[in-house]
């Protein structure tokens, strides 16, 4: 496991991942062609408070204690980052069930401000996922929207893929802003000049094989992720043309 570092100035690609599995699920294809060095920053990467009762999610993933869940997830994330060719960086925020959600996320402001102006910074679009939206909003507030870094916003998978029209044959998400979720439209309004048409990355062939390996590193999560109400649609999570087979990334227009 790589040691956490708060100096991001040397990285050419930085992904802000709300939870341990989000970078692999949402950008496992994009990152294989990203300029390196690459860092994956997990915002909810902190240890739960000592003695806290295990969350329902962790218990249903098979963990008797919160500590066991955390230790396993850190190891899984290290393997996934290795598979994606990225350094693992963890911020000290416990996962949602183990922290007060009204508190600011520690380390996030300082971290995104250290990203080099020439680097590619990826933030979650926060589509249909409140934890992701909180990370997105705090990161935007720290960066500002007035001419500094123009981050990329990635479609949160598998949540976004369960929405109507995400991967339809007409490619409406890629060609028509009218098809975008409200969260994305609001992002464009924040930046004043709107968003560029998104880049869509079909994750096929060798890209899919590598992404699948990275996603499977997060094995402890997958039994629940695949059957959440938010993603309960006919396409399978790990199908070749399933919920993870198209990655979509937006960027604010330059104006």
UniProtKB/TrEMBL annotation:
Task: State the InterPro entries in the record.
Answer: GlcNAc_PI_deacetylase-related, LmbE-like_dom_sf
Q: Which Gene3D superfamilies match?
A: LmbE-like
Keywords assigned: Zinc
Q: One Pfam family name from the record?
A: PIG-L
* Protein name as annotated: PIG-L family deacetylase
């Amino acid at each position: 496991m790589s040691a956490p570092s708060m100096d991001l100035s040397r990285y050419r690609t930085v992904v802000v991942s709300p939870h341990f599995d989000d970078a692999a699920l949402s950008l496992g294809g994009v990152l294989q062609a990203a300029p390196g060095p690459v860092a994956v920053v997990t915002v909810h990467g902190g240890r739960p408070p000592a003695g806290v009762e295990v969350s329902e999610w962790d218990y249903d993933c098979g963990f008797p204690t919160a500590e066991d869940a955390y230790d396993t997830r850190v190891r899984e994330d290290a393997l996934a980052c290795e598979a994606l060719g990225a350094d693992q960086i963890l911020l000290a925020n416990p996962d949602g069930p183990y922290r007060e959600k009204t508190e600011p996320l520690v380390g996030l402001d300082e971290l995104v401000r250290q990203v080099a102006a020439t680097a590619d910074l990826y933030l979650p679009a926060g589509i249909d996922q409140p934890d992701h939206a909180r990370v997105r909003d705090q990161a935007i507030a720290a960066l500002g929207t007035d001419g500094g870094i123009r981050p990329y916003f990635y479609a949160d998978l598998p949540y976004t893929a369960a929405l109507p029209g995400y991967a339809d044959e007409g490619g409406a998400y890629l060609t028509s802003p009218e098809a975008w979720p409200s969260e994305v439209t609001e992002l464009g309004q924040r930046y004043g000049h709107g968003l560029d048409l998104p880049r869509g990355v079909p994750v096929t062939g060798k890209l899919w094989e590598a992404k699948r390996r990275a996603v499977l590193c997060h094995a402890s999560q997958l039994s629940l992720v695949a059957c959440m109400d938010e993603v309960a649609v006919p396409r399978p999570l790990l199908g070749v043309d399933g919920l993870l087979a198209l990655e979509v990334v937006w960027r604010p227009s330059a104006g």
